[in-house]
Design goal:
The chain is mainly β and 997 residues long. Helices cover 1% and strands 63% of the residues. The protein has 9 domains: 89 residues, Immunoglobulin-like (Sandwich), CATH 2.60.40.10; 119 residues, Sandwich (Immunoglobulin-like); 87 residues, Immunoglobulins (Immunoglobulin-like, Sandwich), CATH 2.60.40; 90 residues, Immunoglobulin-like (Sandwich), CATH 2.60.40.10; 94 residues, Immunoglobulins (Immunoglobulin-like, Sandwich); 100 residues, Immunoglobulin-like, CATH 2.60.40.10; 83 residues, no CATH class; 107 residues, Immunoglobulin-like; and more. Strands 4, 6, 7, 8, 10 and 11 form a 6-stranded mixed sheet that branches. Strands 13, 15, 16, 19, 21 and 22 form a 6-stranded mixed sheet that branches. It is extended, with a radius of gyration of 49 Å.
C-alpha cells in the first residue's frame, strides 16, 4: 500500500465480522546538529542527531556526510525505531569557513546543510621596503585576528636567497596591548638560524604589531617569508648599494622622433648621475636625478642615417659605468600623402592632380612616385628631408567618352593608395525600341533610338547603325538636358544582332549596344527586354498551338505548356551566371527553334599587373599590384601562378578577396622561385565557384645568384630539335662575383659559349650549333648548383606547325569581323588545320579586348606546350605579349586587331640513340682498344672538335653506322672533345667524349 491516509480494514470469518482501524504515517526524521557551529584549529567533532518522531521503523539505507569538497565516512544501513534518537559523530579540522552536507536515502530521503564558522581567522601581513641598504634590515609586520575565538599558534619567519634559506642573526620585536592605555615592546633575540620562531596569543579582533630584524645581510635579491597554521607567503626584497640605477628599456618614439630611455633607481637612496648615449650619429651625455625607488624617462632628439644602427646607452656615477645596454634599430624614410589638390576634371581636356607628400620617417630619403589614372601612367622622383613636404604634380589627358562619375587613380609610394577623382562627363539615358516584336525573313523594320542628356554637358555626337546592308550615321548636336531621336530602317535577317553605338567627335564610343531581330515561327516567345541580370525573373509571353516544351538556362529548366492561345510563363536565372548570350529553346510537333537573350552577369575586367621591377633574383621578394574591376561586388578567389618555359604553370598563391563593382587594386608581396633563369610570367586568374572570370599576365626576368667559378656537365648526346639541360656547379658558395657569357662563331657551323668571371679569367665553355641552338641566359648570376637549358632559337623557322590564320577586324561601332585565311597567304610552314573557334570579350576600356583561340588538343607528334599566338606585323610573325596557354586554348589580352595565328613545335622522332664506348677512354685501361661509335647516321661525316672549336678529326660513316677511332695513335691530349655527325638530309647528332691519359 502506497497511500498516506489512514483507513479501516474489515474481514469475515464464519460469519463473524472483524473491523480494524489502520493508521498510515509517512516516514520522517528530525535532524539536529549537536556540535558547535564555531570551531577553532585542531581536531573537532561533528555530532549529528537523527530522531524518529513517528510510530514506524525507519530504514536508512545510506547516509553520506561531506565537508566542503571533502567526503567524510559514509554510514551503512541504520534502523531507527519509533521515538529513537541516533547520534552520528565524525572528526574534522578546518582553517576556513566550511559547510557540511548530510545526504540520507532509504525510507526517508533528504539533504541538509549546516555552516561551520572557523573562529581563529588570523592574518599575518609583511610590510617590507622594496630596497634596503647592505647590513641591517628591518621588516615590519602585523597580526590580526578577525575571528570570534582567541588563538595561540607558532609563527615562523625566514629569509631566502636563490630559493635557499639564509643563516642570519636576527630578532623579533612585538608591541602587545596589555591595557587600553599602556603598551609594552618585547624583544626576542635569536641566534644565527634559518627560522625566527615566536609563539603568539591573540584575542578576537585584536591587532599585534611587530618587526623582524636581520644583521649582516649582504647585497642581492632576497625573499622574506612567514609561515603559520593558515598559510605561508613570500615577498621579494632587494639589498642594494647606494647610488644605483638601471636601464629598463631603450625604444623610439615615432611621433616625436626621439630616443627614449626608461631608468629605474634600484639603489637604497636617491640617485644623481649621468646618462651617456653613443652611436655613429650621436654622442651625448646628460644629467639624471631620481628619488629613492623613482623612475624616469629620458628623451633625446636624434637625427640618424638610413639603415641599421646600434645605440649604446650607459649610466655613469662619478664617472664610473654602473649599467649599460644597447639596442639595434632600423631607420628609414617614410612618405605619406598629406594633401590632394585637383583641378576640375572635364572630358576632352587636360586634368591636373597635385599631391603634397611628406616624409614622416626618421631619415632623409629618395623615392620614385608612380601615378596611374585611366590610360595615363606617370613617374616622379623626389628627395625629402625628415619632416619636410613637397608638391608633386601630374597632368594627363581626359578622354571625351567618359561617363560622369567617380573614377579611381592609384598613387604608389611605399604602398599603393587609391585616389578617387570626380570627372564631369556624359550622363546619357538610352532607349531603343523596334516597331515589331517579330519579323518575317526579308521584312522591313524600324529601330528607334532616343537619347536623353541628363546633365548640363553639350557637344557633337554620332549615332551609328549597322546591319547586313551596311551602316548609317546620324550626326547631331546634343544640347544640355536635351533629347535626340534617331530612326533606322532595316531588312530582317536572323541569328545576328543589330548593332548600334553612340560616339564622340574623336570617334570614341560612349555607348555600344545591340538588339535581337526575332523570327516568326510556330511558337512565338516574346520577352520584354533583351538583357537580364542574375537572379532575375525572365517573363515569356508564348503564342502558338498545341503542346510545347520550353528549355531554359534557369529554374525550372524545362516547362511544359499547352497553347490554345496566349500564355505567360517565366523562369529565374541562377544567382551566379557569367556574362554572355543564352538561349530559350522550344519544341512542338517535331519542330524546334530558339531565341537568344543576353545576361549581364558576372565578369571581371583585368586592368593590368604592375611589378615593382622587371628583373629579380631567385627567392627574392617581389611586390605587385593587380588592377581589376568586377561586375558584381562579392567574394572572389584570386590565384597567382608562376609560368616558365619548361615547367608550365605552378601555383604560388591563392586567396579569397572581396571585390567591389568599382576598380579594385590588390597589392601583394611574395617570393619568386623557379628551376630556370630567364623570362617568366606572373599569371593572375579570378574565379568564382571555380569559374574563370578574368585572367592576365606580366613578364619578368628571373636570374640566379653569383658564384666565382663553374664546373659544367651536360649530356653525352644532343638530339636536334629538343632542349638540353646543362648543370653548373659553383666552386664558391658565398662569393658574389658574376660570370659573363660570350658566343664566338667558328667554322663548320659550330659556336662556343665561353664563360668567364669579371676578371676575364676562363671558367668553362660549351659548344652548340648557331641558328638552331641558343642559351637561355648568356649572362646571369648563379649560386650553388643550378641548371640552365639550351633550346631551339627560333621556333618559326625549324620544325614548326601552324593552325592556320585568321583576320580579326573591328569598326568603331564595336562590330568585330573574323575571316579565316588560307595557309598560302603567309610564309609557308607545315599546316595542321584551322583554329577550332574564336571568342572575344570587349573591355570597358575602348579598343581593348580578350580574344580566345581554341585548338584541337588531341594532335599526335606535336609539342602542344609550345603553342603561342602570333600576330603579323612588319612582314614577320610576332608573339603576343600578354597571353596564357591552357589545354585547348590560348587566351590573349590585346589593344589591337590584326592577323593572328597559332604556332608550335613538332616533336623530333629519334629512332636510335648513338652509343660511344668506352667513354671516357682511359689510357692504362684501353690502350689496345679505341673508342667505338655505333648507331651513327649512315653516309654522314663524323667530325671531332676540341674544346676551342677546332676540328681535329673527320671520317665518313659507313652503312653500318659504326666507326672506331684510336686517341693514342692520333696524339690526343687529355680533355673533353665534341663529336658531331650530319647527313645530306640535314639530320644531326651531337655528343661529347672524354680522354684521360
Amino acid at each position: 500500500f502506497t497511500g498516506t491516509s489512514s483507513f479501516h480494514i474489515e474481514g469475515y470469518l464464519q460469519d463473524i465480522g472483524i473491523r480494524e482501524y489502520v493508521i498510515v504515517e509517512a516516514p520522517r526524521l528530525i535532524i539536529t546538529q549537536l556540535s558547535p557551529s564555531i570551531v577553532g584549529k585542531g581536531t573537532n567533532i561533528l555530532r549529528i542527531s537523527l530522531k524518529n518522531p513517528t510510530q514506524r521503523v525507519i530504514k536508512v539505507r545510506e547516509l553520506e556526510i561531506t565537508l566542503g569538497s571533502e567526503k567524510l565516512e559514509a554510514e551503512g544501513i541504520i534502523f531507527c525505531n519509533p521515538g529513537e534518537e541516533v547520534i552520528i559523530e565524525h572528526s574534522f579540522s578546518i582553517t576556513e569557513d566550511a559547510t557540511w552536507t548530510l545526504k540520507i536515502s532509504g525510507d526517508y530521503e533528504t539533504e541538509t546543510t549546516f555552516p561551520i564558522i572557523f573562529g581563529e581567522r588570523v592574518e599575518v601581513v609583511l610590510l617590507p621596503e622594496p630596497v634596503y641598504r647592505e647590513g641591517w634590515i628591518e621588516i615590519p609586520f602585523t597580526i590580526t585576528n578577525k575571528g570570534s575565538l582567541s588563538s595561540t599558534f607558532e609563527l615562523s619567519f625566514f629569509l631566502l636567497k636563490d630559493n635557499k634559506p639564509v643563516l642570519a642573526n636576527g630578532y623579533i620585536t612585538i608591541k602587545s596591548q596589555e591595557s587600553r592605555v599602556k603598551s609594552q615592546e618585547s624583544k626576542i633575540r635569536i641566534k644565527e638560524q634559518e627560522l625566527l620562531k615566536i609563539t603568539i596569543y591573540i584575542e578576537p579582533q585584536e591587532l599585534i604589531e611587530g618587526a623582524i630584524h636581520y644583521e649582516g645581510i649582504g647585497l642581492g635579491e632576497y625573499k622574506i617569508g612567514s609561515s603559520f597554521f593558515r598559510e605561508e607567503k613570500q615577498i621579494p626584497i632587494n639589498v642594494a648599494d647606494e647610488n644605483l640605477a638601471l636601464i629598463k628599456k631603450i625604444y623610439l618614439s615615432d611621433i616625436d622622433k626621439i630616443l627614449c630611455v626608461d631608468i629605474e633607481n634600484t639603489g637604497a637612496n636617491g640617485f644623481s648621475g649621468q646618462l651617456s648615449i653613443l652611436s655613429s650619429f650621436i654622442s651625448t651625455t646628460t644629467s639624471i636625478s631620481l628619488e629613492r625607488l623613482g623612475t624616469m624617462t629620458v628623451k633625446i632628439p636624434i637625427l640618424p642615417q638610413e639603415g641599421k644602427e646600434v645605440i649604446k646607452v650607459s649610466i655613469l656615477y662619478l664617472g664610473n659605468k654602473i649599467d649599460e645596454k644597447e639596442g639595434e634599430f632600423s631607420f628609414s624614410p617614410s612618405f605619406e600623402i598629406e594633401k590632394i589638390e585637383t583641378t576640375t576634371l572635364n572630358i576632352g581636356e587636360q586634368g591636373t592632380v597635385t599631391f603634397v607628400i611628406k616624409n614622416t620617417g626618421w631619415t632623409f630619403g629618395r623615392r620614385d612616385i608612380f601615378f596611374s589614372f585611366l590610360e595615363f601612367s606617370g613617374k616622379r622622383e623626389i628627395f625629402l628631408d625628415r619632416g619636410s613636404s613637397t608638391f608633386v604634380q601630374f597632368s594627363f589627358p581626359i578622354d571625351d567618352d567618359l561617363v560622369g562619375g567617380t573614377y579611381t587613380g592609384y598613387l604608389r609610394i611605399d604602398q599603393l593608395h587609391p585616389i578617387p577623382l570626380s570627372i564631369a562627363g556624359w550622363e546619357l539615358e538610352i532607349e531603343s525600341s523596334l516597331d515589331k516584336a517579330e519579323y518575317n525573313e526579308g521584312e522591313c523594320g524600324t529601330i528607334t533610338i532616343i537619347i536623353r542628356n541628363k546633365n548640363g554637358l553639350s557637344g557633337s555626337l554620332t549615332v551609328v547603325f549597322r546591319d547586313e546592308g551596311g551602316e548609317k550615321r546620324d550626326e547631331f548636336y546634343l544640347e544640355s538636358h536635351g533629347k535626340q531621336t534617331s530612326e533606322f530602317r532595316f531588312l530582317a535577317t536572323f541569328h545576328k544582332k543589330l548593332f548600334f553605338g553612340i560616339y564622340t567627335e574623336s570617334g570614341r564610343g560612349l555607348w555600344l549596344d545591340a538588339v535581337y531581330i526575332r523570327k516568326k515561327g510556330d511558337v512565338a516567345i516574346k520577352l520584354k527586354k533583351d538583357t537580364f541580370i542574375p537572379d532575375e525573373e525572365v517573363i515569356m509571353e508564348l503564342e502558338g498551338k498545341g503542346s510545347v516544351t520550353i528549355t531554359t538556362p534557369g529554374t525550372p529548366s524545362t516547362i511544359e505548356v499547352f497553347l490554345p492561345s496566349t500564355k505567360t510563363v517565366s523562369f529565374f536565372l541562377p544567382s551566379f551566371i557569367k556574362s554572355g548570350t543564352y538561349y530559350i529553346e522550344w519544341e512542338t510537333n517535331g519542330k524546334s527553334g530558339r531565341i537568344p537573350f543576353d545576361v549581364k552577369g558576372y565578369s571581371v575586367l583585368m586592368l593590368g599587373i604592375e611589378l615593382d621591377r622587371g628583373k629579380y633574383l631567385q627567392n627574392e621578394k617581389f611586390i605587385t599590384t593587380v588592377k581589376m574591376q568586377a561586375s558584381h561586388p562579392g567574394t572572389y578567389t584570386i590565384s597567382y601562378w608562376l609560368k616558365d618555359t619548361y615547367n608550365g604553370f605552378f601555383l604560388i598563391r591563392k586567396e579569397d578577396v572581396r571585390l567591389s563593382s568599382n576598380e579594385t587594386a590588390l597589392s601583394i608581396s611574395d617570393i619568386f622561385s623557379s628551376s630556370y633563369s630567364g623570362r617568366h610570367s606572373l599569371v593572375v586568374g579570378v574565379f568564382k565557384d571555380d569559374e574563370l572570370l578574368g585572367i592576365s599576365s606580366e613578364d619578368f626576368f628571373l636570374s640566379f645568384s653569383d658564384i666565382a667559378g663553374f664546373k659544367i656537365e651536360m649530356a653525352d648526346e644532343w638530339v636536334d630539335g629538343l632542349p638540353l639541360d646543362i648543370k653548373i656547379y659553383g666552386e664558391k658558395e658565398t662569393s658574389t662575383i658574376p660570370f659573363f657569357g660570350k658566343i664566338s662563331i667558328l667554322g663548320e657551323g659550330f659556336s662556343i659559349l665561353s664563360l668567364r668571371n669579371e676578371n676575364g679569367c676562363f671558367i668553362g665553355s660549351l659548344t652548340f650549333i648557331p641558328g638552331v641552338w641558343t642559351i637561355l641566359a648568356s649572362d646571369g648570376y648563379f649560386k650553388g648548383t643550378t641548371s640552365i637549358r639550351v633550346y631551339p632559337k627560333n621556333i618559326l623557322k625549324d620544325g614548326v606547325f601552324s593552325f592556320g590564320s585568321v583576320s580579326v577586324k573591328a569598326s568603331l561601332d564595336g562590330y568585330i569581323k573574323i575571316d579565316f585565311l588560307s595557309a598560302s597567304d603567309f610564309p609557308p610552314r607545315e599546316y595542321i588545320g584551322s583554329i577550332c573557334a574564336i571568342s572575344f570579350v570587349p573591355s570597358t576600356i575602348p579598343g581593348s579586348f580578350t580574344i580566345t583561340f581554341f585548338f584541337d588538343k588531341n594532335l599526335p607528334g606535336f609539342d602542344l606546350g609550345s603553342i603561342k599566338a602570333y600576330y603579323w606585323k612588319d612582314n614577320d610573325w610576332l608573339p603576343a605579349e600578354n597571353q596564357v596557354l591552357f589545354d585547348d586554348r590560348v587566351v590573349v589580352e590585346t589593344l589591337h586587331f590584326s592577323t593572328w595565328t597559332l604556332m608550335g613545335k613538332k616533336i623530333t622522332q629519334v629512332e636510335k640513340k648513338a652509343i660511344t664506348y668506352p667513354n671516357p677512354w682511359v689510357l692504362h685501361k684501353h690502350r689496345k682498344n679505341g673508342i667505338s661509335f655505333e648507331n651513327l647516321l649512315p653516309e654522314s661525316f663524323l667530325d671531332i672538335y676540341n674544346i676551342y672549336g677546332e676540328r681535329i678529326f673527320r671520317e665518313i660513316v659507313p652503312d653500318s653506322g659504326k666507326v672506331v677511332i684510336y686517341p693514342n695513335k692520333l696524339g690526343w691530349a687529355s680533355g673533353v672533345y665534341i663529336w658531331a655527325c650530319s647527313d645530306y638530309k640535314g639530320n644531326k647528332r651531337i655528343g661529347k667524349i672524354g680522354v684521360i691519359k
